[in-house]
Amino acid sequence: MKQFFRLFALLLILGSAPCMAEDVVIVHNFQALYSAGNLTITPNAGLEANKIGTVNDGIVYTCQYGVSFGNDLATGTQKAINLQGNNRRVVTTQIDNLKEIRMKNTLSNGATYQNLKIKLSTDGSTWGETIDMVAVPATNQYKATFAKGNYFVRIYTNENVNVSITELRFVTEPEDCNCFVYTP
């Protein structure tokens, strides 16, 4: 009986070790989503073609100021969000528990482009400070990291460039990890 209580106590101690909620990465590779029928591209209220992209996971992209969904500008073979010119932007619906955004993009000449900017909003109308993208070593991705929250995302350029966003990855950290944290 004594051994049972020892094992039970050991189980309680080891079972209550702190745990961290694991990140969930929402991957939006626009070509893969489109090919699988999980991305619907429609006109906006002004009936401008290819302005609204709705993904089956509930995230909606609204293209503004000359931005649209189409084939990438470098090869013309992949679905992408194309930003052509100066002051172009795309806005998402709210993404919960967001803490990082990773992006793959190409210029019309095939090179990657680091100077896309991000702004976040908690209400969809008031936007925070610009967050610059930084290169992720040994990949062709750029990322922006920030405090976790429920955010609308604006991706934009303030340079006269022709760039295609071919993939976005939204890194979230869910609240419910079902953890019991014991602090002795």
Structure, explained:
- With 184 residues, the protein is mainly β.
- It has a single domain (20-172), classed as Jelly Rolls, CATH 2.60.120.
- Helix content is 11%, strand content 46%.
- It contains two helices and 13 strands; from the N terminus they run αβαββββββββββββ.
- Strands 1, 2, 3, 4, 5, 6, 7, 8, 9, 10, 11, 12 and 13 form a 13-stranded antiparallel β-sheet that branches.
- Strand 11 (134-135) and strand 12 form a beta hairpin.
- The chain starts with a helix and ends in a 12-residue tail after the last strand.
Supply the key terms.
single chain; 184 residues; mainly beta; Jelly Rolls; 2 helices; globular
How far apart the termini lie comes to 26 Å
CATH architecture: Sandwich
Shape: globular
Q: Gyration radius, to the nearest Å? A: 21 Å
Would you tell me the structural class of the helices and strands? mainly beta
Number of helices: 2
What is the CATH class name? Mainly Beta
State the total count of DSSP E strands: 13
CATH topology: Jelly Rolls
Largest sheet: 13 strands, antiparallel
**pLDDT averaged over residues:** 87
Structurally, the number of domains stands at: 1
Strand content: over 45%
Question: Considering DSSP H and I runs of 4 or more, what fraction of the residues is helical?
Answer: 10-25%
What low-confidence regions span 5 or more consecutive residues with pLDDT below 50? Answer: none
Give helix and strand order, one letter per element, not per position. Answer: HEHEEEEEEEEEEEE
